[in-house]
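Limitations
The structure tokens in this dataset are predictions for the assembled complex, not deposited experimental models. Users should treat interface geometry with appropriate caution, especially where small molecules or nucleic acid strands are included. An illustrative entry is reproduced here so readers can see what is and is not provided.
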Amino acid sequence: MRILALALRRLAASLPTLLIILAGLFLLLQLAPGDTVDALAAQMGGGDPAMMARLREFYGLDLSVPAQLARYMGRLVRLDLGFSAIYGKPVAAVILERLPVTLLLMGSSLSLAFAGGMALGVLAARRVNRWPDTLISTLGLVFYATPSFWFGLMGIVLFAVNLGWLPAGGFEEVGAGHTGLRRAVDIAWHLVLPTVTLTLIFLAIYLRIMRASMLEVMTQDFVRTARAKGLGETAVVVRHALRNALLPMVTLIGLQAGTMLGGSVVVESVFALPGLGRLAYESVVQRDLNTLLGIVFVSALLVILVNFVVDLIYARLDPRILAGR
Amino acid sequence: MQTSRRTLLLSASASAATAAGLLPHPGRAQDGQRRGGVLTIHMNGEQRILNPALRASTGVYVITSKIIESLVDLGPDGRILPVLATGWEAAPDGRSFAFHLRQGVTWHDGKPFTAADVQYNAMELWKKHLNYGTQLQQDLLAVETPDPHTAVFRYARPMPADLLLRALCDLGYIVPRHLFEGTNVLDNPANTAPIGTGPFRFVQYERGQHVIAERNPTYWREGFPLLDRIVWRFISDRAAASAALETGQIQLSSYNAISLSDLDRLKTDPRFTVTTKGSEANAFNNTLEFNHRRKELADVRVRRAIAHAVNVPFFIENFLYGLGKPAGGPIPSTSAFHPGGGQPYPYDRRKAEALLDEAGYRRGAGGVRFTLRLVPIMNGEDVPLFATFVQQSLGQVGIRVELVNLDIAGALTRVYRDWDFDLATGWHQYRGDPAVSTTVWYRSGSPKGAPWTNQWGWQSDRVDQLTDQAATELDPLKRRALYAEWTKAINEELPIWMVTEREFQSVGSKRLVNAFTGPRWASGDVHDTGLAPA
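Predicted assembly:
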């Protein structure tokens, strides 16, 4: 009950921010030269003015900017995200199609990065300034500094083109008609390369944070106490230090949720995945205002949700945080 | 060696037999011809709607031409092939044109195809909405349907038969009247779930992933199509698309959808065919547009100097992998209307400098004569390369060029709606007849804001007059002569510069049987194309 009240309070506090973001973005996009009909003409390779005027009317672009904004906000209040110019169907439906792919890809790579970063970070911290630490830190830096499209393409060249172990792209086997478990396995198969590519990027950050945090916690009094009472090194690290060192990691997850929901344009393009990142990119290039605003709206809602969950996790990891509220 | 030569001879004689019409049932699949298989085609961008009666673009055709059919199609050597129209005749005054329609054809939803469908498409879709169609059919008064299998087009002015038939290969697609009539055509569900008369039936469109169509069992060409299914996969990253080709996930990519460097690499790969065949119907140019409102560019000597200053063969050799040649004018050499003649202003830096001096723009401080802003219109991967090449070439003759980089919607607005540019560069696509795609780049009177039309602030009575004359001249030979004169007038004035002349490249798996057969094959129905087992 208390959690529900807290959630509602959070949501209410975020609403004004949300409206300001949407209105701001709407006005910002008016500054971009060209509208969705220009983008369409570009795609078609020509269009006469009468036809373009008819299309502008069809997309509601013949109204003044304030009128368009008022109309958009009016619809938004009724939770209607409007109609997508590129895809010819309601924005809500377009986003809903893409959301599972994005959540699956980003969820799995973030978990993998979190788990891997945690393990490697602890390992590096325990062997600080010795060769395992140097090796792990250097590798992390290399992963972080390498552009993800390069990783992705090299992965495709090696594992798909040369070795033929993994598919080169796509979300699933097109038209294979798999269902149930077969389909899940097929999708997992297709997501191996993109997930690993994205993981390598995130991994470095988690690794560094975990290492630093572990090093700091290991110098604290309660660790010395734990050692003094005769606990083994493993028990000290796992039961006492790790839990406390996790707090910054959780913060980072909360912060990265935004990035995560925005999707990764690069990885989605390289692996031809139908995610939100590519959708947002397409919407900007094609000046599809409704879709873009819809994506921002949905992402913002999810970020609010994730941060709320992160707060709950803080409280669970460190009860002092809730006590202070 | 001997075996391969024999196979070659055999296949050559087989195709000769087909061409001569010697096969007993031209409409039936040949014995031993491979049936079945799923062809997967690469698409590099999503199309907003899948309706070729509303949108004329190669991206739309690559998908919809397998599902929806046109009245006529383009055969080898530019012959017009009957599709939904079986025959046609023009009245001597050129003001009416009768099409006899194929009987016994049904839409994929089971309703019969009749002249009423043709009438509706021509009057309501082609004349009102279809890009390039609105202009082609602007003088169309009515389509009469004396019987269910005859459609008579009535024009206010004479319409050359060769122009109309060639244009209808692209602009003559028919969608069912019963689904569109009385609805908002732009908003019709059949725009994204197309229904036609073609060899394949639409199955599914997953946004951002793929479109699927399957064999139409009641197709009017008995025994066709050969393939079971066609899948179009959307892969926007060019490098990823060529990887998908190499792993066999896709078997075909047309219209330069993968990068020139990959095309060059796959050319030597025995698993693939890289060819300009199958898309000869469309040629394209790299262009350089001048804004004549700038006083320097209003001087023809400056425009010629700019053309002389750019080493086009060098650009083609080093940036386009040798795929192309310098253009001799607005009409490509592959077209029957090409009057002959090569690059009018070949590379000559000294001449360029002399012309600029003569025009009164001497080198000032830092050796700079004047500064121009160049807006690249990014509709091809080589556009930014050419923009940079122009910048450096003109820098050498003392014209400083600033690049104004915008995405395509922004660039189009800047050039065509706001006229806020000095130079622009992009692609011009030639669509078979100068009156369809090309004269609009030069004819005056185009309303402000219409992309890819004359918005240069340049006008020539003579060019306008020749354009109009050629568009209504019924005698094909006289039309060619008029376009030769037109080309001469344009090359003289150089209002804008068609720099290169190029053909689209396709890459296909060697497993494809009977592929790249006609000049519009990539935009065609592929009913007789098969796929050998992997």
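Some entries come with short summary sentences. For this one: Chain B touches chain A through 66 residues (CB under 8 Å).
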